[in-house]
Amino acid sequence: MLDFFEEFRSNKAAEKLKELVATNATVLRDGKKIQIPIKEVSLGDIVLLSAGSMIPADLRVLQSKDVYVGQSSLTGEAESVRKLSFTQVTLDEIDNVSDLDTICFMGTNVISGSAKCAVIKTADSTYFGKVAKNITNNQSKSAFQKGIENISKLLIKFMFILTPIVFILNAWKHSPVTAFTFAVAIAICITPLLLPVILSTSLSKGAVKMSKKKTIVKKLDSIQSFGAMNILCTDKTRYFNRR
Hints:
- The chain has helices at 2-20, 72-75, 127-137, 143-173, 176-190, 195-211, 221-227, and strands spanning 24-29, 32-37, 46-49, 58-70, 81-83, 103-104, 109-121, 231-234, 239-242.
- The protein is an alpha+beta fold.
- It has two domains: 41-128, Distorted Sandwich (Calcium-transporting ATPase, cytoplasmic transduction domain A), CATH 2.70.150.10; 143-242, no CATH class.
- The strands form two sheets. Strands 1, 2, 3, 4, 5, 6 and 7 form a seven-stranded antiparallel sheet that branches. A two-stranded antiparallel ribbon has the order 8-9.
- Helix 4 (143-173) packs antiparallel against helix 5 (176-190).
- The protein is elongated, with a radius of gyration of 27 Å.
């Protein structure tokens, strides 16, 4: 419950921050230009792009005028890519889907020019959404999580070893029921029942302290991971750390 409430509060705070920097898209509906939140863009919408526009979904370019798009969030390349209504790329030159010059990908932004595009993919169906999903699903456990699991496994091993020994020793002097009850009590004492509560309490306290310094912690486990870093290197597209 501590884990849930702390992360719920952090996510709510993060959502409020997102609302402050909410991004809109210009679309054509019923022949009129209107501004709508990016999350309301749907399949088949005609989106109008100009310099500075964020790409709200995967778009097929219908008309373009000197459109250059920054795809560093997807490819890590700083150079902008020209987008056209008719491709100038051959099949041999396409190594990745991001090489397509007639498609604007969600999560990228327009550097210069203007264009009219049709929405072909939205949300999790977009290339950006699939990349994000793969990263989330393939996240490895942190050293902190592995350490907690190892401690728990060690204590459980002790429990399985000591419980039968205690039962056998007590069965010689007492009744089997008494010996079994005492063995179960020993097992309960060794089992790390309160370990999750202790960890959540400690990490929650750290999250509260960090919130006073204007830092929002969305995942409690990340507190220990960042605390264990010696050097943090980062750019716009990726980060790594050396412990």
